Amino acid sequence: xxxPHPGRRxxxxxxxxxxxxLASSGPGKRRGLRPLLNAAALLACALGCTHDVRLEVPRSTxxxxxxAAAPPRDPAQPELLRAEVxxxxxxxxxxxxxxxxxxxxxxxSTQVQPAALVNALHRSGGxxxxxxxxxxxSLSEYFIEDGSLxxxxxxxxxxxxxxxxxxxxxxxxRTGLESVPEGAPAHDLHSSxxxxxxxxxxLDEVGYFYVVLGRRLWRVDVRHVGPEMIxxxxxxxxxxxxxxxxxxxxxxxxxxxxxxxLWLSADDARVPLRMVADASFGQVTLGLTAREPASxxxxxxx
Length: 302
Fold this sequence. Notes:
Blueprint (H helix, E strand, L loop, with lengths): L8 E3 L3 E2 L17 H9 L22 E2 L12 E9 L2 E13 L2 E10 L1 H6 L2 E10 L2 E11 L2 E10 L2 E7 L4 E8 L6 E2 L1 H10 L7 E8 L2 E17 L2 E14 L9 E8 L6 E8 L2 E11 L2 H5 L3
Parallel strand pairs: 3-13, 12-13
Antiparallel strand pairs: 1-11, 2-11, 4-5, 4-18, 5-6, 6-7, 7-8, 8-9, 9-10, 10-11, 13-14, 14-15, 15-16, 16-17, 17-18
């Protein structure tokens, strides 16, 4: 199918949606916890969940180059990553993310499980799935459990464009077709992490790419800070640090830039060891706890 002219938007009017009811939401629903729960769900591969001025912004984007989409790792091996999510050093939840190669590409799936106390106060959780082709993502889908609501976001990725279905659990859902500047691919959170793991920048090099969060397009600028020693999985490890900032392209003046730092292992695998994103409600940290083959899980179709 064709894609729109740059800058044009073609969206259907809001259709009659659904308010998905989930069992056992209970009386403990607390609307004030919603930012934490949504952050936990999106921290599956988070590139821009939260914001705070304490994280460093890439110094200059004048010479930034578009980071080219990288094909799936060759040879592609099944992989399972486990991580813990913390707020102020306190457990917020955990996640498991599997990387499953198949004949047509790769399926990346992530499931977020909130900590028991968080879930007791407000039923929550999330899962995400992305289909990766050699040229980038082809389909991404997110389900976020938020009290009695089930939020559902689906994106079909095309060359220089993307189609979205945006169901925020309210009385209406939105669909639309959007173009991407420069005819570039629009990544999701899973493919963004895969892109950064495959990137091999020089010291202090700045690159950028585009990512869809919900139904809005953001530009993400990332700077390679260089090697750092960090503590991961209980031991000191050499890592490569990336600092990033993302800016929403639609009405940017109404959305704060979102900043993050990501530490990848210094070997060829570029395993994500830690991610930090500061928010108005505190510093959120994602730390790797285990990496192992995912052959059994992938063969089971999970």
